[in-house]
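Example record

One chain of 250 residues, shown exactly as stored in the release files.
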Amino acid sequence: MLPSFFIAHGAPLIAIENNEYTQFLNQLGQSLPRPKAIVLFSAHWESELQRVSEIDQYSTIYDFGGFDPALYTIQYPATGSQDVSQEIKDLFTKNGVPFAVESNRGLDHGAWVVLRLLYPNADVPVISMSVNPHLTPEEQYKIGKSLAVLRANDILVIGSGGTVHNLRAVKWADNGQVDQWALSLMIGWHITLTNGILILYLNMKNLLHQQNLPYLHMEMNTLFHSSMQWEQQMISKKQLYSIAAFDMET
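Predicted structure tokens for this chain:
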């Protein structure tokens, strides 16, 4: 049975960088049993309704600006899988998850940057999935629970985003040190996931008061506001709920 992953896609530049993180992703792809297909949820594809790609050949989307020109020459010519797309649609229908089919959209950098590091030859079929930032954590968890069976069918499931994404707190003059608030947040998520107790955190208001996530307010400083900024910050967190359901249900 294949695992499921929540992978930080970072800035687009990691597509052309050679560092500890990119080397780790290269090695991860080489160490895994070869998947039948990859189902990838990208934080850079928002939709009002969960969308399932049904595409034979993906284009490469450059949804960023002001970066190294070399990035805009990269192609990741991944193919889709009609059979796996149909399997996902059947599972969503069976479990009462509303969805729509996407037949045109290519792979954004949240998808192709990660995929290119894992499988540089673009030789594993991909089913690209959107993220609906308006769903509740419970609804996101249901998406993951519905698709958990895919792991037993040699299908790799990936959520691409970032659990720490507070641009206001970024130190652009990087000294290589990790901020304590970010480290504490990641340790808290790790404890939550590895102990299988994520379900206790589905109520986001209570999440702020948990002892093992003392710095959550640094990352989610608009928790109780229904603003677009908060919705964008929540995308990756909600992916985390869905991806966690794969491991917790199987």
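Notes: The helical segments are 20-31, 82-95, 109-118, 137-147, 180-194, 204-207, 216-219, 228-249.
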